[in-house]
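can u do me a favor
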């Protein structure tokens, strides 16, 4: 599904030019939300940048995920969709997703604390992390949280814990099927030398895994997450296929269904070029169904760990343009959204390009002929640009820019450069009559909080230390 071309030459002058195709309904909702956010001063002179989340959109994506797997799984198959908390580490969002039937995948004590604060039960929480401490493991086992061990040393620690106290926690092993990487090296976790899981194709590794399971009747799960963003779907399916084949082999050797659950990871890529949602969960589930026919037979419970694909399309960074200037003949809009909210885009622009939409001072779509310009952030380094040479209606000071598709891994994953405060985050919903209501998800960080986090309580701590 692709919307009409939204170029100045093709589209009506109602939507902001993003230089790409957009879905009209999504665009209308977003335009209304931007207008209302400006009118209600969620952004303004005091708060020059904010994150906005489309709550109906998030609910829709969660429902699509569940429906996609429901369509293919045998009735009664346990399926847990555990949202990867790192994609949007915001407690109200985790609770919303829980209401929509999702659990949480956590990878640190902080993420676990957020999931618990959101009220996500232990039985719907999965702990994956390559560096779990003994204390984290002990807590997870005591709470009954599913744990996927990353490596032989971690498994040995779990041996000790299981021997010393009984646990109801489902325990699994993460494997790396080594099927290769995707478009973005840093996001590819199934390369030959990836740091994650047990490298299944290394010499002797497969036999080691089989033996490790046969020796531990409580090891009942296998887990693989082969990458995030930029992974071809066929390669993802190949990773799941490898996981399934391994489970079959273990169960055959064990003479019983020891491995009862397969954790397929997340990683469905997101389209950052337009409002079209592609690929869809249904396409992916359908592909898995044909590539790994036994997967949905009901012989295995399933866990998924999607993050970006649930949230990305539903988030917008809204920022004021502080100044408009030019250098070397190039117009530059100096805005309040840069590396602190769009870290990956700024540092690795080729891998993470995002759409930018232009709005005027009142938050109405800005119109005008496209002019190639730089959209800069507030950080004090030259590369702090969210878009370079991007054709957009010429921005003026007091205007606004919206960074689209930023609901996952952008404003929720703030980077504290230049001591820029974490922006406020607001959920919105549009009523049938077009009015927009907001709810605060996260208040903007105050300068007091920021100073406290920077050691204000220890201002005197260095006094005299190291003096002669
Ligand atoms: C990051 C991560 C995910 C989520 O990846 P997305 O690309 O956001 O879907 C899932 N599982 C694990 C183990 C991860 O590290």
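np, heres the sequence
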């Amino acid at each position: 599904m692709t919307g009409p071309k939204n170029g100045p030459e093709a589209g009506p002058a109602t939507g902001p030019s993003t230089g790409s195709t957009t879905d009209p309904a999504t665009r209308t909702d977003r335009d209304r939300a931007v207008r209302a956010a400006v009118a209600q001063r969620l952004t303004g002179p005091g708060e020059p940048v904010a994150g906005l989340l489309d709550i109906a959109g998030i609910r829709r994506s969660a429902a699509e995920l569940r429906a996609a797997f429901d369509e293919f799984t045998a009735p009664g198959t346990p399926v847990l969709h555990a949202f990867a908390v790192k994609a949007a580490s915001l407690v109200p969002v985790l609770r919303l997703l829980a209401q929509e039937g999702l659990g949480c995948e956590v990878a640190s004590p902080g993420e676990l604390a957020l999931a618990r604060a959101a009220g996500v039960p232990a039985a719907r929480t999965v702990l994956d992390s390559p560096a779990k401490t003994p204390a984290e493991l002990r807590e997870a086992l005591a709470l009954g949280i599913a744990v996927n061990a990353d490596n032989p040393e971690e498994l040995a620690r779990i041996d000790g814990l299981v021997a010393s106290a009984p646990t109801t926690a489902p325990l699994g092993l993460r494997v790396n099927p080594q099927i290769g990487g995707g478009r973005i090296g840093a996001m590819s976790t199934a390369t030959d030398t990836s740091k994650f899981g047990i490298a299944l194709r290394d010499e002797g590794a497969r036999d080691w895994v089989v033996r490790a399971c046969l020796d531990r009747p409580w090891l009942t799960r296998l887990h693989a997450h082969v990458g995030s963003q930029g992974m071809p779907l066929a390669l993802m399916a190949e990773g799941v296929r490898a996981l399934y084949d391994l489970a079959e082999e273990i169960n055959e050797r064990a003479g019983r269904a020891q491995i009862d659950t397969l954790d397929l990871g997340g990683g469905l890529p997101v389209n950052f070029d337009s409002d079209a949602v592609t690929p869809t969960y249904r396409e992916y589930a359908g592909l898995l169904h044909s590539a790994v026919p036994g997967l949905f037979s009901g012989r295995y419970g399933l866990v998924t760990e999607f993050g970006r694909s649930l949230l990305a399309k539903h988030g917008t960074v809204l920022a004021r343009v502080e100044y408009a200037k030019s250098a070397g003949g190039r117009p530059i809009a100096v805005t309040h959204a840069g590396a602190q909210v769009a870290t990956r885009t700024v540092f690795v622009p080729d891998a993470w390009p995002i759409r930018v939409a232009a709005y005027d001072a009142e938050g109405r779509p800005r119109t005008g002929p496209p002019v190639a310009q730089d959209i800069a952030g507030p950080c004090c380094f030259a590369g702090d640009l969210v878009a370079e040479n991007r054709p957009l209606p010429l921005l003026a000071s007091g205007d606004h820019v919206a960074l689209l598709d930023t609901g996952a891994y952008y404003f929720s994953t703030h980077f504290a450069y230049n001591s820029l405060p974490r922006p406020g985050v607001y959920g919105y919903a549009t009523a049938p009559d077009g009015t927009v209501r907001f709810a605060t998800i996260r208040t903007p960080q105050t300068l007091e909080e920021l100073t406290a986090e920077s050691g204000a309580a220890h201002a005197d701590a260095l006094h005299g230390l190291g003096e002669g």
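Confidence is low (pLDDT under 50) at residues 1-15. hope that helps!!
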